[in-house]
Amino acid sequence: MNKPKVFETDRLLIRPYTLNDVRDAYEMNRDPRVQKYILDEGPMTLENMHIIIRDHVLGDYSKHGFGRMAVVHKADDRYIGFTGLKYLPEFDKVDIGYRLDVDYWGRGLATESCRPMIRYGFEELGLSEIIALAFSENKASVRVMEKLNMKYKCNMLYEGVDVVYFELTEEYWRSCEL
After folding, report:
1. H-assigned helices in 15-67
2. 72-122 pLDDT, tens per residue?
3. How far apart are CA 9 and CA 18, in angstroms?
């Protein structure tokens, strides 16, 4: 199985998921505040989380060589969510996404976790652009996209939900990195 490498920032360890992360992911996702801006993933059960990680996340590693990755807060040595890239076949594009435990919101960790993923996408995967989608009313996620220098393109209906669509081209990313 292809697995992405491990990434480290000042405060975070970003590593491939394992099935040992199922319980922590399940516990985080049970919080209704975490679920507020998430498309329906089916009933939030331990078994469903196991299926999501086993079939979808680990499956993406096998199929694409990348996918969502577990985020560990280094100071606490605690799983706090995910970040990473995901191929969206309906767009034929790669999306950057994240989800964090509410105890870690408002600290800049979403932005911090996405930066090495974007670098990885452009420098190692050779992507020409990365997109991001968020519920239109999710102002915190819109702000993360803006901090990542992503450009707003449009609002659209995605799976019946009004979302904002942002993109970042490799060329623009390089110009911002200088």
Report:
1. 22-29, 32-35, 46-51, 58-64
2. 999 999 999 999 999 999 999 999 999 999 999 999 999 999 999 999 999
3. 20
Closest CA relative to residue 91, chosen from 154, 158, 153: 158
DSSP letter at 63? H
Percent helix, strand and coil across the chain, each rounded to 5? 40, 30, 30
DSSP 54: I
Residue 126 is encoded by which pair of tokens? 């050779």
Q: Report the mean per-residue pLDDT for the chain.
A: 94
Q: Which among 104, 114, 116, 117 has a CA at the least distance from the CA of 134? A: 114
- Contacting residues for 89 by C-beta, under 8 A, at least 6 apart: none
The tokens of 171 are what? Answer: 């060329």
